[in-house]
């Protein structure tokens, strides 16, 4: 019996086969689940990475077809929207159309019906695909290339035609020798500018045409003004360019000086004279052209130097002037032609043996194509920025497919300072959309990263002291039966939806804080002193007087003191505002107590209703429960024996908490702060609703911000699929991912170091 009893006793501790199988299954299941989680995170990482990779790639071209054209003097090269029917201008008014499908070449003389005169000068505008022809009789007309797509079933064919304007008079101006010619349009009224040579003298003239208006109809175009600008110039005029709208005129002299004129009421006024190349050896300018938007000029010197000047208001000035904003690398061979994109700020410069595709905004060279066996005569970009056309010295026209979907991208565009058009200095700017086709997207992520760190900083500045001190008090000083209610209550706070907190911040807290900042300052300054003063007073009372209140219940005396002290401090705010935060009214000279005006006047910073202070309070409110819970658990896990030993040695409860418990739990406390940091970094709705959502770069507590997560919520619904903005938003998500990954890695390393340091405890 005794042996049988011993055997039964041993069998009690022997697990059954079912338990062993379940244990083995769960062990493998947990391993597979962990590996699956790692694989899922890695998969998300790789998906985002491959979405953003195209943003950092350059342009590429692939040859589509080549045709040998008749030998002629070709001066202009262009194409239809689809790049299927290129055209070339021969001489002054003969145009050739090439059908890429059949290889057939058709020609047409550009002349309106009944015109029998001579063309003395032709100018081309690729934005409107129009030619301006100046006649020997002092008149001009405009011929516009028109393409139409016609479908026969699923087959598409491109039909080309030419539309002519009427013959417009030039006010009796006659000149047989035109050095250069340019034109622009403003409200369907053309402006023509030209450099002419007569009797050995050079003249620069402009002709503005206008159309009379009536209630019932429009009149014919007539010469409204005719100006001679020669007296405003120094040197020998060589090149003249009008912006597409006809309101900006620039004239380049052979001496390398540029004269900038602005049109006001049909007349041009000289605004600025400047030298695009300071180096005397570069003064001979081969090319001066406007880029898309008409507020930036591209200059190429004879030695291949390439700079861009943009209109902006320099510091200390009150008018727009041309200032150099870009400086590209030199062209490797002699410059031959220039073409601008009509979709973005890309420029195509051709040299004798190469093609150079450049992006004006970021100063990137998107593509360099070397052509050793031929000389490039003319190169052009298609309207859709998807074809590249090149005519060489052997009259061979080659068409390439251009692949450059994200020319605005690149490391510098996202993380570097960019000098955008109109800005008076380089900067970090996020502005993804604008009101015109010539707008250039500004996609710097730096303001969003700064906004993310700014919001997180103010949130943790508010949340960390409150959460840590509350956890220490709850764990070390509060009676256990009250702790059982307080901790679940704070954990319930974490379940409040972010959208509700953002709603309260935007509609209730922001207006309140705006009007009572001094009151808030008084509460923040006085409440800690009131609480510490009450604690010091309580500690100095005799033990027999404190003994009537059970240990751990002192909070019930502190609560009314804090409430009364908070009310007093809040009401002292207006007193503080009248004593310190006042300004003098400019009209009456009287003192006005207004913190908002005082802040703007004294600091020079802005004061917005929805600002970082509001975000700090509300987002801190969302982060406090998380930090409190983890910190409280860490403090509770410190062995009781350490507390007992410290108290037995004569240390007070506060000394025990500060010198023993906190160091022992420091690894967990650090983890709590880092997890709170991650919660604040990823917050979306609170920041979106309570900050004004403005992507600015300053640490002003009374200004707003835009964070990476809020930017995703705002921009993603309107981002074109797989467009530059779409992929840039993925890049923002990737940066956010990296930020949290780095912070969590640092936190884990620090936690291990701290744990190792205090492991003997």
Count of separate DSSP helical elements? 18
Mean pLDDT: 85
Low-confidence stretches: none
Structural class: alpha+beta
Distance between the termini: 49 Å
Task: Tell me the number of strands.
Answer: 33
Could you walk me through the main structural features you see in this protein, from its secondary elements to its overall organization?
Strands 6, 7, 8, 9 and 10 form a five-stranded antiparallel beta sheet that branches. This protein has a four-stranded antiparallel beta sheet with strand order 1-29-28-27, with no helix packed on it. It has a four-stranded antiparallel beta sheet with strand order 2-3-4-5, with no helix packed on it. 37% of the residues lie in helices and 29% in strands. It contains 18 helices and 33 strands. Helix 15 runs antiparallel to helix 18. A hairpin with a 4-residue loop joins strand 25 (354-359) and strand 26. It has 761 residues and is of the alpha+beta class.
Key traits:
alpha+beta, 4-stranded antiparallel sheet, 761 residues, single chain
Summed up:
The chain is of the alpha+beta class and 761 residues long.
Q: Which helices and strands occur, and which strands form pairs?
A:
Layout: H1 2-11, H2 17-52, E1 60-68, E2 74-78, E3 87-90, E4 94-98, E5 105-109, E6 119-125, E7 130-135, E8 139-152, E9 155-164, E10 168-169, E11 178-186, E12 189-198, E13 201-213, E14 218-228, E15 237-242, E16 248-253, E17 258-264, E18 267-274, E19 285-290, E20 296-301, E21 306-312, E22 321-328, E23 335-340, E24 346-351, E25 354-359, E26 364-370, E27 376-381, E28 387-392, E29 396-403, H3 411-415, E30 430-431, E31 442-443, H4 446-476, H5 480-493, H6 498-515, H7 517-540, H8 543-546, H9 555-571, H10 573-579, E32 582-584, E33 591-593, H11 595-603, H12 612-636, H13 640-648, H14 653-664, H15 666-681, H16 685-690, H17 708-715, H18 724-757
Antiparallel strand pairs: 1-29, 2-3, 3-4, 4-5, 6-7, 7-8, 8-9, 8-10, 11-12, 12-13, 13-14, 15-16, 16-17, 17-18, 19-20, 20-21, 21-22, 23-24, 24-25, 25-26, 27-28, 28-29, 30-31, 32-33
């Amino acid at each position: 019996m005794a042996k049988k009893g011993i055997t039964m006793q041993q069998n009690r501790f022997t697990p059954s086969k079912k338990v062993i199988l379940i244990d083995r299954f769960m062990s493998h299941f947990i391993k597979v689940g962990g590996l699956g989680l790692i694989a899922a995170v890695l998969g998300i990482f790789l998906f985002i990475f491959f979405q953003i990779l195209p943003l950092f790639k350059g342009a590429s071209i692939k040859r589509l077809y080549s045709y040998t054209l008749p030998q002629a003097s070709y001066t202009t090269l262009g194409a239809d929207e689809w790049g299927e029917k290129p055209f070339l201008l021969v001489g002054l008014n003969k145009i050739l159309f090439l059908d890429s499908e059949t290889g057939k070449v058709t020609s047409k003389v550009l002349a309106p019906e009944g015109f029998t005169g001579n063309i003395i000068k032709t100018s081309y505008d690729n934005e409107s695909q129009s030619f301006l022809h100046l006649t020997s009789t002092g008149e001009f007309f405009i011929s516009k290339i028109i393409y139409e797509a016609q479908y026969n079933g699923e087959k598409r064919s491109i039909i080309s035609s030419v539309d002519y304007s009427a013959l417009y008079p030039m006010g009796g101006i006659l000149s047989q020798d035109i050095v250069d010619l340019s034109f622009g349009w403003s409200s369907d009224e053309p402006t023509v500018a030209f450099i002419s040579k007569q009797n050995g003298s050079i003249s620069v003239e402009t002709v503005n045409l206008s159309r009379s208006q009536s209630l019932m109809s429009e009149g014919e175009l007539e010469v409204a003004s005719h100006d001679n600008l020669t007296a405003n110039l120094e040197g020998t005029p060589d090149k003249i360019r009008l912006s597409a709208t006809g309101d900006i005129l620039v004239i380049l002299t052979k001496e390398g000086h540029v004269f900038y004129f602005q049109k006001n009421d049909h007349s041009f006024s000289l605004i600025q004279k400047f030298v695009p190349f300071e180096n005397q050896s570069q003064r001979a300018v081969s090319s001066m052209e406007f880029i898309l938007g008409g507020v930036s000029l591209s200059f190429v010197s004879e030695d291949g130097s390439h700079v861009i000047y943009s209109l902006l208001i320099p510091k200390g000035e009150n008018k727009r002037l041309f200032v150099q904003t870009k400086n590209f690398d030199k062209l490797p061979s002699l410059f031959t032609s220039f073409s601008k994109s009509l979709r973005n700020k890309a420029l195509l410069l051709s040299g004798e043996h190469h093609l150079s595709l450049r992006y004006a905004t970021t100063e990137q060279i998107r593509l360099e194509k070397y052509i050793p066996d031929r000389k490039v005569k003319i190169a052009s970009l298609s309207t859709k920025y998807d074809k590249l056309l090149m005519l060489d010295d052997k009259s061979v026209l080659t068409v390439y497919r251009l692949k450059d979907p994200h020319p605005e991208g690149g490391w510098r565009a996202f993380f570097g300072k960019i000098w955008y058009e109109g800005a008076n200095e380089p900067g970090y700017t996020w502005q993804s959309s604008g009101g015109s086709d010539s707008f250039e997207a500004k996609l710097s992520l730096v303001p969003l990263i700064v906004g993310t760190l700014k919001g997180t900083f103010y949130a943790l500045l508010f949340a960390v002291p409150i959460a840590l001190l509350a956890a220490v008090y709850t764990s070390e000083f509060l009676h256990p039966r009250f702790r059982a209610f307080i901790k679940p209550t704070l954990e319930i706070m974490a379940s409040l939806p972010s959208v509700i907190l953002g709603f309260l911040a935007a509609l209730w807290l922001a207006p309140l804080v705006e009007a009572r900042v001094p009151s808030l300052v008084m509460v923040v300054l006085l409440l800690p002193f009131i609480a510490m003063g009450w604690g010091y007073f309580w500690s100095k009372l005799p033990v027999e007087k404190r003994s009537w209140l059970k240990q751990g219940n002192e909070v019930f005396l502190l609560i009314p003191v804090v409430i009364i002290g908070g009310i007093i401090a809040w009401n002292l705010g207006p007193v503080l505002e009248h004593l310190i935060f006042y300004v003098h009214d400019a009209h009456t000279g009287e003192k006005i107590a207004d913190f908002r005006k005082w802040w703007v006047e004294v600091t020079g910073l802005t004061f917005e209703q929805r600002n970082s202070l509001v975000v700090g309070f509300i987002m801190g409110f969302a982060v406090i429960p998380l930090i409190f819970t983890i910190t409280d658990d860490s403090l509770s896990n410190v062995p009781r024996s350490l507390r007992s030993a410290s108290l037995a040695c004569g240390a007070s409860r506060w000394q025990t908490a500060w010198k023993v418990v906190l160091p022992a739990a420091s690894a967990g406390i650090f983890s709590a702060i880092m997890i709170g940091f991650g919660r604040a970094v990823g917050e979306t709705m609170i920041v979106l609703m309570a900050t004004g959502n403005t992507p600015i770069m300053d640490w002003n507590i009374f200004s707003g911000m835009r964070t990476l997560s809020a930017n995703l919520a705002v921009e993603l619904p309107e981002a074109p699929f797989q467009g530059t903005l779409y992929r840039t938003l993925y890049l923002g998500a990737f940066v956010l991912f990296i930020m949290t990954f780095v912070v969590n890695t640092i936190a884990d390393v620090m936690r291990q170091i701290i744990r190792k340091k205090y492991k003997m405890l």
